[in-house]
Amino acid sequence: MDIKGNSLYAQMQTMSLQAMGQSTTAINADSASIDSVNKANPSSSNFGNMLTDALKTVNELQQEAGDKKAAFEMGDRNVSLAEVMIASSKSGIALDATVQVRNKFVEAYKEIMSMPV
What we know:
By secondary structure, this protein is mainly α.
């Protein structure tokens, strides 16, 4: 699977902006619950929230595809083969993108760990 770097970067920026908007609302709503780590470095919590949301989305896509497959196999007339194939493709693409992001993280971690101090 070939993912264009600029397209992936643009999507990640969009997700980052969405995550920052959500966490900014949450911070304003309950400012007393913010711990000292988030006050010192709020960008790390935004990034963590963004990753968590992305993984939840991938999980939801996989569950949706599984549910549609099961419904189609049981003979549910409300679920077409096209819907099952589209849901399966979406979940496959999302999983592939997740694996590629994980590989980039591992590669970056190895590179950082091999830097001389």
